[in-house]
Amino acid sequence: MPRRSILSATERDSLLEMPTSKEELIRHYTFDETDLSIIGQRRGPENRLGFAVQLCYMRHPGVMMRADEEPFAPMLRMAAKQLKVPESCWAEYGRRENTRREHLVELQTIFGFQTFTARHYQSAISNLVDQALQTDKGIVLAMALVEVMRGQRVLLPALSVIDRICAEAITRANRRIYEALTDMLSADHRLRLDALLKRKEGSQKTVLAWLREAQAKPNSRHMRRHIERLQALQAIDLPVGMDFLVHQNRLLKLSREGGQMTPADLAKFETQRRYATLVALVIEATGTVTDEIIDLHDRILGKLFNAAKQKHQEQFQRSGKAINDKVRLYGRIGDALLEARKSGSDPFTAIESILPWEDFTASVTEAKSLARPADFDFLHHIGDGYTTVRLYAAPFLAVLKLRAAPAAQDLLDAIEVIRGLYDSNVRKIPADAPTRFIKPRWKKLVVTGEGIDRRYYELCALSELKNALRSGDIWVQGSRQFKDFDTYLIPAGRFDELTQAGALPLAVNTDCEAYLQERMALLEQQLVSAHQLAAADDLPDAIITDSGLKITPLDAVAPDTAQALIDQTAALLPHIKITELLMEVDAWTGFTRHFTHLKSGDEAKDKTLLLTAILADGINLGLSKMAESSPGMTYAKLSWLQAWHIRDETYSVALADLVNAQLRNPFAAHWGDGSTSSSDGQRFRAGGKAESTGHVNPKYGAEPGRLVYTHISDQYAPFSSKLVNVGVRDSTYVLDGLLYHESDLRIEEHYTDTAGFTDHVFALTHLLGFRFAPRIRDLGETKLFLPKNGPGYEALKPMIGGTLNLQIIRTHWADILRLAASIKQGTVTASLMLRKLGSYPRQNGLAVALRELGRIERTLFILDWLQSVELRRRVQAGLNKGEARNALARGVFFNRLGEIRDRGFEQQRYRASGLNLVTAAVVLWNTVYLERAVSALQEHGQVVDETLLQYLSPLGWEHINLTGDYLWRRSAKLKQGKYRPLRPFSGA
């Protein structure tokens, strides 16, 4: 029997927590008529109340009350109210111990409650193993176990017993996972896996360490090295389908554990566990390297296209003076010809008056050489980069196991032709090679009078392959990001079961006709309302004319009277070091308890070391520089702690603690109730070693960078942060933050700027229960769509873009629901699906139908925007909070010139997560002390206008010392449960 504790002390306490919200109290402690009848049979009000209270405890949390225990006050109050007896009766209850014991026996007999026995113990372990095959998080298993026992009316055993049950279930699940990953291995497989732990020839690294190296610069040399890694992984030749034998959560956990082990550590593992860990490492590495190879190909082609565009522009610049001279010359000739026509003189003489005929003839020839075809673009320069692509194309195409949808079969056939040319060392493309995939733009370069041009055929095919992989028309076996579209979704059979049971986790009516009828009725109503206002020029601060829409800019949100209060409270906030701030916030919330050991699940023993590693991420200092700046710290200690205790999920749950503390803080309610949020991307330049991993987006200039996409609540709490590619539209990640955060926030309305919206996002946010409200630049050019053709809405005509295609929504309704349900349940992330649905050139039925659904919601939103100044103010206020938070983040992330310089994507993610955690801590600390500052003003006799408190902000950092040596000493002035003093009060 495992002895290691699975649950922390806090987690154990949470299992038996009494409900606190009104809704939970009603759900758990409302008596029905049968209950009241049974309770009423007890003699005396004190016995009825005592009997009822014991019943409540048996139902929730599912335990017997201790003899010396006082009942939970809200529950006692609710029970007494239903029984119409005074709460004070409890004091009279149970003076005879026999009374309580008799009532306990009666409750078990009448209501069927069972005492936990050895039979229940074994049954609980068996039932929990299936869930332990999916997750080894003790609290998740314990909560599932408790819910089952409550449902079966089995009274909960001691918490130590629940802990042992979970531990045993995990142990059994681990054995089954090891068996599943090793039973199909042959002796040769085991030899090849053992070889991973040996040194790679000519290197100081093991083969396994070499295989797990991150991608480098996007060039052909590094591409070939990365392809070698994938070839080595494929040479292990694991049995087909092994990656489906174990739940992805457990497979990833096993891989992460193995990744932190040295070869010596792995060699010490029991044989079955060692091979299972190596299999998990190979499966995860194969998926990672496959995706990285595709990303490198994408970036190499991106560089070639950018270079071609640059050459194209330079060519025009070089020809610019000659073209300008010709235009001016022909302008003079034109004037002379016009004058000749007017006077009736000879036109040829007019030309010769400007320049000799021979010079005119030469100028015409020169003009022809300067002129370009009407469809001329930069593509003909792409051929200059063919050598780069040719250096890796053969192994690249050979190593990828490609499959295609029917729409892309012609392209896949072309890829097979190119593979064959490399295999047989043939130069010429056969005349019958597939060409239907070639776009008109490429046609003139690929198909020439002499046949098919090899360079441009291959470049065109590889470019179209990049697009098809993005959209999902072509997928790759072994990949995680480029799988078959259907495999990302809930299995069709499971979806049918949920649909028939009416259990789809969506926020809309899942009957298509009922849904469309309701939305069309609302759309008609809004169109009529907006049209009437527009026709009467009564739209608030807006007017629609033939030239378009004009909206009056909003006034400044904060009144001048708020500035004095802002200055006064800021002057009172204590000066504090960032290290002291983190320690104080941890004392309030205990967020560091979530950074548990990857393998054992234990909390970090040295909190100072942990906070140092977190701060190294948050201020972008890095572990080596942080070790130099923190007395008593070493790089080795920090690196070990980061490897075992800091992960994406630990950052996520720790952040949730801070966000929840902000949500519960009464002062934060002045800024909002936590039901609205905004999101925005913040670009950080990729410098140093990270420069080669950064992406370029012309919106931000020519320098490579990374984007941190952050969601912030109306209470200023940054509840989600994600490191993303700057080349991908912000809208791709809007839903991820709303759906996958760990906090208690229940967001209802969400704001973004223009980059955050697409029709697909409008559709999915509505289906998933969020109101989407973006601030759209050039709103007048964003068209409205009508339910049907016909006269009417003349006043809105400049903004009308067409009619809705409701039939395609009906046709693909089941596909839309399946996609939305898959995203909601976490089968696939919203960002991955949005990337595929929005990728060129895929225009499949689902993408089009979802776009039409989004047009309905976008039209409704714009009509609301036209009629509601309040909506515009809410959106502006929400986005202003996000922009102000970005300024704080920039101030905190100041080291290394604010550049991300870590080459590994995992380390870059930790930088983003650490930054978000530190900013959340600053926001919470400022909120607490702003409240104290306001109270201090009131204590000194100043009248504070409550309506002005909404204009205070917890995003200031002038009083926080972010630089210097990082010492972790608790302030002598700060006693347990106390606060540090404010700065001296100087009066109004």
TrEMBL record:
The GO terms describing molecular function are: DNA binding; transposase activity
Where does the record place the DUF4158 domain? 6-169
Q: Where would I find the Tn3 transposase DDE domain in this sequence?
A: 580-966
Q: Which GO biological-process labels does this protein carry?
A: DNA transposition
Start and end residues of each stretch annotated as Disordered: 673-697
Lineage: superkingdom: Bacteria
Kindly provide the name given to this protein in its UniProt entry.
Tn3 family transposase
